[in-house]
Amino acid sequence: MTEHTKTTPAISTVSKMLSRHQILIMAIATGIAVGSQYYNQPLLGVIANDMDAPSGIVATTTQIGYALGLILLVPLGDKIERRMLILLQCLGLAVAMVLASLSPSLGSLALASMLIGVFATIAQQMIPHAVELASPIQRERALATITTGLLVGVLLARTASGFVGDWFGWRSVFIMGAALAVMMLACLALFLPRSQPQENHSYVQLLLSLFLLVRKQPALRRASAIQSLLFFGFSAFWTILALLLQTPRYGMSSSVAGMFGLVALAGAVLAPLWLRIFRGLGPIHAIRSGVIMVVASFFLMIPFSSFIGLCIGVVLMTTGLQVSLISQQALVLNAAGSARGRFNTVFMASQFAAGATGSAAAGIVWLRGGWTAVMILASIAALLAIILSLVKTNTH
Questions:
Q1: Considering the entire predicted model, what is its pTM?
Q2: What is the pLDDT of residues 104-117, one digit of tens each?
Q3: What is the Cβ-side half-sphere exposure of residue 262, based on CA atoms within 13 angstroms?
Q4: Are 240 and 257 in contact, with CB atoms under 8 Å apart?
Q5: Which of 16, 172, 327, 359 is most buried, with most CB under 10 Å away?
Q6: Which domain-ending residue is among 182, 200, 218?
Q7: Domain assignment of residue 371, given as a range
Q8: Residue ranges with strand state E in 109-166
Q9: Do residues 120 and 67 touch, judged by C-beta distance below 8 A?
Q10: What are the pLDDT digits (tens) for 287-323?
Q11: CA-to-CA distance for 382 and 389, rounded, in angstroms?
C-alpha cells in the first residue's frame, strides 16, 4: 500500500466485553438512523399531490446525501473520537427532520432530505465502532446483531412512514423522525462507549486514500460494482412502488406501499438460512445465488404485477440482495486488513450513489414506459451484476 492507505493497527480501548444491552442499543440506533432516509419513499405520491410537482427528486437527493456522508463523514471516524461524531450526527439528523417537516416547497424539502441522508450515515459509523469496542469472541455476534438492526430499520421505516403519513399527513412523518433522533441521541450519550482513534493522517489524506483503495484493490472494485448494480434496481423498485399502487388499477394508499416493508422482512429471515447452504463453499457461490434471485424477482414482476406477484417478488429481491450483501462484505473485510473503515466507505458509498441513480432513472422511465419499463431497467442492471460475478479477479 502507499503511505495514504497505511493505517495504525487498532488498539483495544475497552477492557471488558460490550454488554448485551449496549449491543442492542447500537443495533436499534443503527436501524433508526438508516431507516430515516427511507421515510419519504412511501409518501412520494402524497407529496407530489400536495406540492403539485413530481416528487422523485426527494428520494434521489436523500440517497445523494447518504453517499456524501459516507465519503465525507465516515472516514473521520478513523481520526476523530467516534462516539462524539455519532452524537453530533444524531443532533444534525434531528434538525434536518424538523426542516423537512416545515418545508414550504419541493426544493426546500429536497435540500432537507439531502441533509437527512448525510447525517443518517450514523449507521455506517456504528459498524466500525462495534468492531473496535467488541472483544474478539463477541465481535461476530455484535456485527450480526447490528447488521440485522440495519436491515430491519430499512424495511420497517417504509411501513411506519406509510401508516403515519396516511393518518396524520406526510409532514408528521418527519416530526416522528426528529423525535426518534432526539431519543437516539439521549440513549447513545448514556450508553455508547468512547473510542480512541489511532489514525494520524490528515483529513485530506484520509479522503485521498479512498481513491487509492479503489485503484489498487480489484476485489473491492468488483464487489462494489456488483452490489451497486443490485442496489440500482432495488432503489428503482421502492421509488416507484408507491406511485404504482396509487394508479387507478390499484387505488391503494401509501400505507399499503409501506406494508411491503413487512413482506420484505422475510428476507431478513431467509437470507441467513440460505447462506448456511453455502457454508464451506466460499462466498462467491453465495453471491452468485443472491444475484440470480434478484434477477428472478425483477423478471417475475414484469408479467406478474398483481398484489401477490409483487409480494413474491419483494421476498425474492430482498433475500437475494441480503445474501449478496453479507457475502460481499465478508470478501471486502477479509481483504481490508487495517483499513476496514475506508473499505466500508468505498463499498457502501458506491451502492448509495447507484441507488440515487436508480431512483432518478426510475422516475424518468416511469413517466415514459410505466412499470414494465422500470422492471426491465432493473433487470438489465441485475444481469450485468451476474456477468461481473462470473469474472475472476485477483483478490490481492
A1: 0.76
A2: 888 899 999 999 99
A3: 10
A4: no
A5: 359
A6: 200
A7: 204-396
A8: none
A9: no
A10: 999 999 999 999 999 887 788 889 999 999 999 998 8
A11: 11
